Input
Amino acid sequence: MISPAMSRLLPKFSIIRSIEEMREFRAGCHNTGLAFVPTMGSLHEGHLSLVKLAKRHSARVMVSIFVNPLQFGPSEDFATYPREVEQDLERLAPLGVDAVFLPEARTLFPKGKTSETSVKVQGLSQELCGVSRPQFFEGVTTILSIFFNIINPNLVVLGEKDLQQLRCVEQMVKELYYPIKILSAPILRCDDGLALSSRNQYLTQEERELAPFLFQILQKTAKAVRSGERDFVQLSETAIKALTGQGFRPDYFEIRDRESLLAPKEKDADVAILVAAWLGRTRLIDNIQVEL
Ligand code: AMP
Output
């Protein structure tokens, strides 16, 4: 997996594969605490910005790379999800992380592909992305619950790119009383506005050229909301029509309360505008938060 030449280039952090090693590493951080950045690898600048944020808040930082089977549905892209561990380790090397956790699925799930115990945030996990991906958030909160128990971080950094995931994890941490602070990092974008994502590499050249339209329609809707438009149903319908007209297949386009991600209760509550749309065989998600 990691060539000897590569290993020589990577003296800067520990690579941890077993739960025992992980617990030992954590015990060595008892004076400093530990910040944790969970990822599925194929790292881009968005992921690296989380690591940099973690470094600003913690003397010790650990990154995990694990393509989590629990969060993929049977017809989704688990098998083809990009895996490039060597390059990921190279990308992390200059950032001063202390350890990278690289567990194998069989280490975490010795009985098979999944665990029989799960953690589910009722309600929110079935909204928005949860409609077309009913297993997704339960898969995320279950794996993070497992990681939190193994790693015992006091700080976890997550990206606002996956806003619904962030809110589910915040709720899990609060309701299960994990002694963990969650820090969120803003969405990093390409120059043309497309949010960085490991899945962008699935896009054909033509689709890649079209993809920034997703952010443009979010911006246009945010501008309308900022200038006083409050017919959120109408705004969403207009956005869906515009996306469809450009060749997207939207799963949803919704304006929700920024904190609960449910329908806004007050007229001028801060909102998040969230979208998920297919472009060819790639499902893109994005969002904008609007303070009113
Ligand atoms: P993933 O590897 O896709 O599971 O993402 C790992 C973490 O990186 C999650 O907390 C994501 O929200 C975050 N992330 C992914 N893309 C971006 C981005 N473009 N900007 C900021 N954070 C991101």
